[in-house]
Structure formats: structure tokens, C-alpha cells
Amino acid sequence: MFKEIKNKYLRYFTILIFFxxxxxxxxxxxxxxxxxxxxxxxxxKTPTLRVGSELYTSDGKLIGRYFKENRTPVxxxxxxxxxxxxxxxxxxxxxxxHWGIDAQAVGRAVVGMGKDGGASTITQQLAKNLYRTRYNxxxxxxxxxxxxxxxxxxxxxxxxxxxIESNYSKNDIITMYLNTVSFGNNTYGIKTAARIYFDKETKxxxxxxxxxxxxxxxxxxxxxxxxxxxxxxxxxxVVLSQMNKNNKLSKDSLAILSKEPIKLKEGxxxxxxxxDSYLRAAVSKYLEKWCTxxxxxxxxxxxxxxxxxxxxxxxxxxxxxxEQMRTLQRRFYSVWGNEDPWYDSEKKKVDxxxxxxxxxxxxxxxxxxxPNQPDSVAAYFNKKKRMQIFTYKGDxxxxxxxxxxxxxxxxxxxxxxMTMEPASGKIKxxxxxxxxxxxxxxxxxxxxxxxxxxxxxxxxxxxxxxGMSPCDKFTDKPVKIEYKDKGETKYWEPKNADYSVTYxxxxxxxxxxxxxxxxxxxxxxxxxxxxxVKYAHACGIDxxxxxxxxxxxxxxxxTVYEMVKAYATFMNKGIKTDPILVExxxxxxxxxxxxxxxxxxxxxxxxxxxxxxxxxxxxxxEPRGTSQALWEWPNLFKKNNQIGGKTGTSSDYVDAWYxxxxxxxxxxxxxxxxxxTAHFKNGEQGEGSxxxxxxxxxxxxKVYMDPSTGYTxxxxxxxxxxxxxxxxxxxxxxxxxxxxxxxxxxxxTDFNPTETPEVAEPTTTTxxxxxxxxxxxxxxxxxxxxxVPLTKKEERELRRKQRQEERDKxxxxxxxx
Length: 817
Prior knowledge:
The chain is an alpha+beta fold. The strands form eight sheets. It has a five-stranded mixed beta sheet, with helices on one face. The chain has a five-stranded antiparallel beta sheet with strand order 9-8-22-21-20, sandwiched between helices. Strand 21 (655-661) and strand 22 form a beta hairpin. The protein starts with 7 loop residues before the first helix and ends with a helix.
């Protein structure tokens, strides 16, 4: 073909051009995988900046970000001219004249063997940063040949630079470059750098600020102003000199600005953008499958994720948690003093630090390194070192050994809290613990703990499903239940919290409100514990539940997330709604990519669901209901507001719960130590009504006091279907005692009948039978009822209070005289 060209010089030139075309075609197509990947025209037209995703509350507040490279893009119009001038003068003085490759600079670099500076243009550097032309995945088989590798990489950057220049304007190219380049400290892009180093917007950068940032591009570590301020200052002045040399800065301005010191001011991108959080981790887990199915990367695809979280409610929840947990931690330390709090269910002391130490991976390695030398192993764990620890007065630096740390954190109480709108399924509050920096484990959806008495409603639900009514009665008496365990006959004898029984007849509503173990056990035996498990699963409990007689007393482990979901089923007229944590996802231009809707399924009839909400109100309305500690917050009951709820405390006061219900929200709170052998000593200190309930109360108090939240006072919704069961049966009214103990699960194989307290029978008991054709009145919060004589214990308590009142009265009278 080439022989037809008679002029040999022209023929050789044509052959050269032909092979250059073939070579660049092979380079572009990655022929035989020799050259590695090169960006296509499609890649050039749709560049990926690897922009982190942003996390917002439902009301538009930025609360977190996901990124591998901490970057936020900026447009050309928002970049200070001094940044552009400094960059061009220093990095590529002929930027506005060349077409991606600066032939003059290339010639200079070749002749001077690189001693007079490199030849990379801004466009070539963009090609390297944006399309990763030097990354391993971009390299082919020829990468193993050193000189050939360098040549191929450079040629790919030239080829990519030419493509970029043919598709974008100069202003677009310089903007993309400034959005991709690194400024050290995991800071990418000029906008992020301006905020991190100077706490300024990009358009507000001074000339000296711009010169310092551009100067860093030569070496982000060497010229980092926080690490090497002297070298950074020298480099900044070099950039100022380059600006003067290229007529971008006057001589007088150069003289003045060169004398100015570097003025740094540490800043943050926006609230919540600089660290991790329980919510950030929870959303990442929530979207894990969605990202996989739809091909998105939270760390690189620049998504805007709008959660269901309400920023005000989240703030109030975090405040309530901080206030109460600080109080509880002081109480816990006061209870135990210098004594270790680690005891098993049989009251035997547990050497928790030793067990935790031996569970550490390093322990096995040390045993192999020092066989039969326990002192050497112990020396490692007892060696003091400087570390930062969590305290309620702020993070504190201290000298701790590994064992010191284990002992310290083994006594720290933690919590999990979640609030949800039952009808919409939107999660409005997510508090995974007391401090994500020190406690990564999320106590909302990761930690599973014994539910205690908060699980009892599922037994009463099963009773309603089997035709009983809230007014059906059982007697508080000793119970002995026979059951089979792997073919062996066993007996379970539950005890009430105070290890006594009253032999009093109680309605189901009253028994649930007072959290009476013996009656709950009888109900469970009658309806069948398998059925209790079935209805708990139907309402939203996903964890495996062991079907045993004690299931209704909360012997199984569940999460706060599951409990809130299940309780929300009652408030949502029997429709189970899977909670959603994300409402929608958009791209950087606010185009909606996905909107999330909750999955729903009717699992209870509307009548049964309404009856259960009526049962929950019993915690406040029935005599000695376990929710009545809420009366300490009188603001909660303004404007005829109604609150339902259930306390819960597991064996030995290890786990404390409160499930609170209002007309708009369902909230679940768990409190306890991560180490299960650590616990309070008695109910006065550690039951749910004294630990978890106040968090709910303080939270709702703050919510109601802020009208802008949109959550208002009001009674529970009235039934919208006919209620065919008897439900309005006032219980005998005792003197209200807000310090009544919450029931806990107590298993015992040795049954010893306790002395029966003398209880007088009610003089009158009013019970209204509601017929189908009769109008069913709505009960009123804390309704009055017939009184009965007190028990001996209550009489003693009343006399003690009366004597104290008399003493106080005399004291006041003497003081007045």
C-alpha cells in the first residue's frame, strides 16, 4: 500500500502517521489488555467526581455525610478570581492557549530532562485525578516494563486531556480540576478546603488564602499549614511571586501580602458532616440492599438522602437521654460504691474483667507467645497507657491499662430509643446509645435484650383474640404451670415483683396495668404460649421467640426497633407497618431517584386494636398502674391529653424498658449495661418506671412544650367500629401510689407459699355490661372508682406519711411564731 508513494520521505512519514494512529487506537481499545483502561467519550461526557452523599432530616437539616474523599462541588461563579489566577500562574501559565497538551512545556521538559519543571497541564492533571489513569485497574500487561509503563500512562493522559478539551470549556475544566484535587487531611475540592482551613466560602477567599491553597498542590503534606507552617508560608509566597510575574498581582501588593502571616481558622463543612453517628450507620445499613440492587455507592455517587427523622424531636430525645442517663449513672455508682456490680442470676459474683480480657483476640496471641507464663500475659493487660475515655463531663485523657478500661466500661449504663409515627411508619427519633464515639453498638436495632413486662401485652392480645374482654377477671394467686421440655415434665412457678400475692380478683385491664405476673402467667397458660408467640410475630417481632410458659414475662431477647414496630400495630388500627428510615433519595441536582413507602399488612381487627390501646391506657387510669410515675410531669396531661404505656424490667433489674404511646407517636426506651451481669440491686433503683420511663416523659414534655413540632395534646382516637366486648369496668381505687414496683420475670423451681396479706373485699364493685345496641361511653383518664380498705402494708405506709405531715406542720407552726 505504501509502495505506491514514490517519495520515500513522504512514504516514511505516512507510515509513521499510520502506526501512530494504530498505536493510539490500540491504546484506546486496550488491545489484548496490553495498555489498560482508557476513558471513553461517554466517560468524558459524564464524569464522576466521587462526591460523597449527604444525609438530611425530613425538615432539610444536614446531619451527616458519607465519603471516601471529603468533597463538596462548587460552580465556577462561586470561586474567587484570586484562586483561578493563582492556579494558572503557578500550574499552567498557557492554560487558556493550549488544547490540553502544552507542546512548549513538553519540549522544555525533554531538553532539560525534567530539571526545569514538569509539562503536565491542568487538563492532564484533571485526567489523572478524575479518571484515575494511573490506578492499578487502569493498567495493562505492559505495566511491568518500567519505561514503557511511564510512556503509556503519559500518552493516555494526553489522549484523555485532548478529549476533555474537545468537550468542555476552559472554565468548566478549571472548575472540575478544583473540585477533584486533594488538599490533604482527606480534604478534596476547593470548597471543602476553604471551609476546613479558613472557615470561609470559596468566593470569600482572600488572595493570600488562595495562594496558600494552590501552593499546597505541590505537596499536600510538605506544604500543609497545620503540619509545616514555615514551609507552607514560603510556598505561599512563591505562588504570590508567580502571580506577580504573570501580571495577576501588582508589585506593591506582592510586597504587602508576602509579609502577612498565614491566618488559619478551623471550620467544618456543616453540622454533622465531620463525624459518624448512630443514625448515619443505621441509614447506611438500611440502604445497603437498595444500593446493591440499584448500583449506587453512598461514598461516591453524590446522593442526597432525606431521612424520616425530625430534627427537633431528635434533639429533644438526645437531650432527654443525656439528662436521665447522667442521673442514672450517678445512681448506679452510688448504689455499688467500691463494690463490683457483676453478679449472675444466682447472686454469685462474676469476674467480668477476667472473662472479657480472655475473650479479646490479643489474649490468645499472647498465650502462644508466652506459654505457661501467665505473669507476662497479665503484665500486658496491666500496663498503663494514655487513652481517652468517655465521661458525662466530656471526653477525658487518662492513664488506663486494658483491664482498667474493661472495668470502667463494664459499669457504664447505656440506652436505646426510637420513636415512630404508627400510621405513616416514619421513624422520627433514633438514639442508638449515649455516645457513638465510644460505644459503636447500636441499641435500637443491633442490641437484643430481655423485654421483661413490656412483652405481657401480647398475652392479653391473645386473650382478646380468643374472645375474652378487658373486663374478664383472674385472681392474683400462686401459680404452678406444668410444661414439657424435651420430653421431660417440668414446672414453672412465677412470682410477683414483691414475692407476695393478694388473692384479689382483677380484670385483665387492671392486671396488665399493674403488671401482675401471676395473672399474666394464668392468661398465658389459658391461651397457650404458642399462640402468644404467634401474635407477637404477627404484630412485628422478628426475633426468634422460644415458646415457653415464661414467654409473656419477657424471657426472650428482642430489639427496641421490633418492640416499637409491634406496639405501633395497636395504634395503627391493627395494621402492621414496617418502619421506614428514609423518605426519598435525590441526585445532586435534586432529581428524585427513589421514594420509599412502608410495607403494610392488616394483622388485627380494628376492634381488637382499639381494645388494646384502651388496655394500654390502664397504666395511667387503673389503680397503681405502673405508668403513673408520669404524674411527676404534669405538663404531659394538659388539654385532656392521654398517654398509654407499659413498663418492663427483666430479672435482677438487668434490663429496664418503657413503651410509651400517644395519639401520634410510639416510643420505645431501653436502659441497661452492655455487660448483662451488671445491674441495679432492687426495683427502687432499677425498675423500668424509674429508669426508662423518665426518658420518655422528659422527651414528650419537651415535644409538647414546642408547638412548632406539630405534635399536640389530645385524647386517643375514638373507636371507628362497633366495640362488641365489655370494656368499661372500673377497678377498686386504692390510694394512688406512684412508687409501686413493676413486675419482673422471676423463675423458681422451689415453690414456697408466702403469707397472704389480709385484704378486705370491696364494699361495692361497679361493672357495666355493654350491650351491642347500647352506646359505649369513652373512659376518662384516671377515672374515679370505688375505694376499698388498705392492706396492712399500705396502712403502715399511710400512717408513716401522716406522722411525717404532722411533724412538718408543727415545724412550720413553730417557725411562724
